[in-house]
Automatic annotation (TrEMBL):
Gene3D superfamilies: Tetratricopeptide repeat domain (1.25.40.10)
Record protein name field: Uncharacterized protein
Placement of TPR repeats on the sequence: 187-220
MF GO annotations: DNA binding
InterPro entries: Lambda_DNA-bd_dom_sf, TPR-like_helical_dom_sf, TPR_rpt
Species this protein is from: Reticulibacter mediterranei
UniProt-listed PROSITE patterns: TPR
UniProt keywords, alphabetically: TPR repeat
């Protein structure tokens, strides 16, 4: 086995910074790997520079000690398969089925991101190949479907953490919607691109997109969704009472835009931007806890809203697995921020672990940056040297690089 003294020294330095003994590190590593602690001697051998070749084992080390993955995992590859995807041949295109498929994926999710991307690509190619050989009415419907599938493709790429690919397809959806005069779709796609920037905490780019999307005249639910995201972003940037008030004023404006029914033409093609009352309440609770300065946050009111949400969401629709998972993740994040401010750190750790489990279930990395940031706050707290915090780092690594743990 070759020796890498630099990486070994890095392991030792990070373990000491994390406040872990060699015995604790050996236990965490072994439990994450096979459910059984390894010996102290075996662990210290790695700190001497004899690191395992297995990317999975290195990922566990990086996760538990908070080491940047690139420093221990130089061979990580995160690409979508470039396998050629054929179009459908020899049968008429079923527009009703294409529309239904969009809604099904939006509500229930998918088993594999790569398979979902290939399926979306096949449908996009098929729509392109058929669009000039149908009636004008069918052409209009197929163009709407193209916008929907381009946005869906971008959403899936965003969920799997491929931001460059997602950005390219959001831009394609925006261009197509603009060329065809589909105002609602253009606003929705711009909004989703803003969400992509928000995932990466590029707050200024996100705010520009949300403000641009809000400038369109759109159905009430879509407008409510856009303004809520604008409020979330403005609150993340707020440093004064005036800036906090401006963000909450936007949230207040969205209350009357929420509706449990979906009847606008946009949502027959894609359901991403629906805005039921539960979603309004979830945005409100999170917005109250997102200011970067503690004195601008409102944990008491946020807790009241989340408690109401728990009562309202008691009988959630089992057919909307993906929506339900995002709902619970976002509630968990709001609760985690509340309990972090109140210094109930073990509860924060449990809430983040639950959010990670939900993220794995729906193959999504959308909230991973927020979870990781809260985990970093935990590491800096009085609870930071607890083994549970180190194990949470390993779980975050599993969501960031799932292919290493298969």
């Amino acid at each position: 086995m070759s020796r890498d003294e630099v990486s070994g020294n890095r392991l030792r330095e990070r373990r000491i910074e994390a406040g872990l003994s060699a015995d604790q590190a050996a236990s965490i590593y072994g439990q994450a790997l096979k459910g059984v602690a390894i010996t102290r001697k075996a662990y210290l051998k790695m700190e001497e520079g004899y690191l395992p070749k297995s990317l999975k084992r290195r990922a566990i080390l990086a996760g538990m000690l908070g080491i940047a993955p690139a420093l221990l995992l130089p061979e990580i590859v995160n690409e979508v398969s470039t396998q050629r995807v054929p179009t459908e041949k020899g049968k008429a295109l079923n527009i009703k089925e294409y529309r239904a498929k969009l809604l099904t994926v939006e509500k229930q999710g998918y088993r594999s991101a790569d398979e979902a991307l290939r399926e979306a690509t096949r449908r996009i190619h098929t729509l392109h190949s058929r669009i000039f050989y149908v009636s004008s009415q069918e052409q209009e419907e197929m163009k709407l479907l193209l916008c929907g599938y381009q946005t869906l493709y971008a959403d899936i790429a965003r969920e799997r953490g491929d931001y460059k690919l997602a950005l390219a397809h959001y831009n394609m959806a925006i261009t197509l919607a603009y060329q065809e005069g589909f105002t609602d779709f253009e606003a929705a796609a711009i909004c989703q691109r803003g969400n992509l920037f928000l995932d990466q905490h590029d707050l200024n780019s996100a705010l520009r997109d949300f403000q641009r999307a809000a400038s369109f005249k759109t159905p009430d639910q879509l407008r409510g969704y856009i303004l809520s995201l604008q409020a979330v972003t403005q609150m993340r940037l707020a440093h004064t009472e005036q800036e906090k008030t401006a963000a909450l004023r936007l949230i207040d404006e969205t209350e009357n835009l929420a509706s449990p029914t979906i009847d606008d033409a946009l949502y027959q093609h894609i359901d991403t931007c629906s805005f039921p009352p539960d979603r309004y309440l979830r945005f409100w609770a999170n917005t109250l806890m997102l200011a970067p300065i503690k004195k601008l946050r409102s944990p008491g009111l946020a807790t009241e809203i989340l408690n109401e949400l728990e009562i309202r969401n008691h009988g959630s629709n089992a057919e909307e697995k993906r929506h339900n998972a995002y709902h619970q993740m976002e509630c968990n994040l709001a609760y985690a921020r509340i309990y972090k401010d109140q210094e109930y750190f073990p509860v924060v750790s449990t809430l983040l672990q639950e959010a990670l489990t939900l993220a794995q279930q729906i193959n999504s990395r959308v909230h991973l940056r927020s979870i990781s940031n809260l985990h970093n706050d935990l590491k800096m707290s009085s609870y930071g040297k607890n083994e549970e915090v180190a194990m949470l780092g390993v779980e975050i690594m599993k969501v960031q690089h799932p292919h290493l743990f298969n």
